[in-house]
Specification:
single chain; 407 residues; alpha/beta; 11% strand; globular; binds S-adenosylmethionine; SAM-dependent_MTases_sf
């Protein structure tokens, strides 16, 4: 794969359609650029609830469904398509490791064929392989990934983790292990990291957030580690309010991503429980109902409103309104027939959710744009890279995997 060309194509497409992926359907009316696609709104507003839910959770199906009404979707689909995940093991999780996390760990490890593994006939394996070099697990939590790796292969591992309770719990788990493994208290953003990362070790990170995985890349560029494997997540975290390009190629780009834009990249709540989804939708409908009330009082509908905790969805619309108006604070008399506004809020929500599919159509492209920046940075530092999906997005939507080997 030519990463540079793909990054450039994504950059151009994202640049052209900024007004669409920056549009927040929950706050504003449809952007002017919707007029360029006359049948798009009709298609979106006629989607059933089941179709909506399916498309919200599936990038590829979403882009395929939009393409007849919104031609850029076909281009996006081609650009976000990567090597499909390899089949992975599915064994019982060891005591204490949550089932979904265990499946992600197994898929992550199985996406790294060993350097001594023979290729099955006809199956193309990633070119970057895992060998017995000692591992540093970046932002390891309790070190579940190291635990699984050291058990499966003969290698030593160190986890770096900032949270002392996770460090202690991880070391308790490691105390009976056959292979040498431990979790070290370390803020990877500080210089402490250089006490632990030397050029002999390979670096692995499963779900290291924005600034934390960028720090891994910068550290590797200095220490010249032989191998890296990173599945990035939460691009909006541990940065300074916006995405900061690492690669020389992307630093020349005019396209900027605020943290709100980066949140769009991870807006796929497939793993959220249905109770949480229900509570979130309830509050969204109430916010939209409140905006209708504000409009009638000639108060700007984009007035910032305080956010409320999810459990407030269990109160009534009236109690919630009173609480939000007190928090804001804003004095206004509530209309007598609140049920009507609550109903209208739900109707606005149904429309906003459908229109928001257009923003969602760009979320993987935004994510990939950031990940390609990391890959280009590694190439600029003489790493040979592969980029793939290590598991199905239903297991975790944060399923991109960069593997890199020092040339
Ligand atoms: C999303 S979790 C991933 C944990 C683990 N890799 C996993 O997949 O279960 C991110 C981890 O990074 C740790 N972390 C956050 N900031 C850190 C820092 N500055 N230095 C080291 N670890 C950090 C958190 O405490 C947390 O355990």
């Amino acid at each position: 794969m030519n990463f540079s060309i793909r990054a450039q194509q994504l950059n151009t497409l994202l640049n052209q359609h900024q007004s669409l992926w920056r549009h927040n359907a929950y706050n504003e009316v449809s952007p002017r650029s919707f007029r360029d696609f006359p049948n798009l709104l009709v298609f979106l507003l006629n989607l059933s609830d089941e179709e909506l839910q399916h498309l919200q959770a599936n990038d590829r199906d979403l882009l395929t469904a939009l393409a007849p009404y919104f031609p850029p979707a076909a281009e996006l689909l081609a650009l976000i398509t990567l090597a499909a995940p390899l089949p992975h093991q599915n064994t019982e999780p060891p005591r204490g490791i949550p089932g979904r996390k265990w499946l992600q760990i197994q898929a992550f490890i199985d996406a790294h064929p060993r350097s001594d593994a023979a290729s099955h006939s006809g199956e193309s394996l990633p070119e970057v392989r895992l060998d017995n070099t000692a591992i540093i697990e970046w932002c390891s939590g309790k070190g579940y990934l190291s635990e699984a790796l050291t058990k499966r292969y003969e290698l030593d591992a160190i986890g770096l983790e900032i949270d002392p309770s996770l460090v202690a719990a991880g070391n308790l788990r490691a105390s009976t292990a056959k292979h040498h493994r431990r979790v070290i208290a370390c803020d990877v953003l500080s210089d402490q990291v250089f006490q632990h990362v030397d050029s002999s070790r390979q670096l692995l990170a499963l779900h290291a957030c924005g600034g934390l995985h960028q720090r891994l890349l910068n550290t590797a560029a200095v220490q010249k580690n032989p191998r890296l494997s990173i599945s990035p997540c939460c691009y909006h975290r541990f940065n300074q309010g916006e995405y900061r390009y690492l690669s020389a190629q992307m630093q020349g780009s005019e396209l900027r991503f605020s943290n709100d834009d980066l949140r769009t990249a991870v807006r796929q709540t497939k793993t959220a429980r249905s109770g949480e989804t229900q509570a979130r939708r309830q509050l969204q409908a109430w916010y939209l109902g409140l905006r209708l009330i504000l409009e009638e009082h000639r108060i700007a509908t984009n007035t910032p409103l305080p956010s409320t905790p999810q459990h407030w969805s269990k109160t009534s619309f009236r109690d919630w309104l009173n609480a939000v108006l007190t928090l804001k604070p804003l004095e206004l008399s509530l209309p007598a027939n609140l049920t009507q506004y609550e109903k209208a809020g739900w109707q606005c929500l149904r429309e906003a959710e459908r229109i928001d599919l257009v923003r969602m159509a760009f979320r993987r492209a935004i994510e990939l744009h950031c990940v390609l920046d990391s890959v280009l940075f590694l190439e600029e530092h003489h790493y040979h890279c592969t980029l793939s999906e290590f598991c199905a997005s239903s297991l975790t939507p944060r399923n991109l995997l960069i593997q890199a080997e020092k040339v």
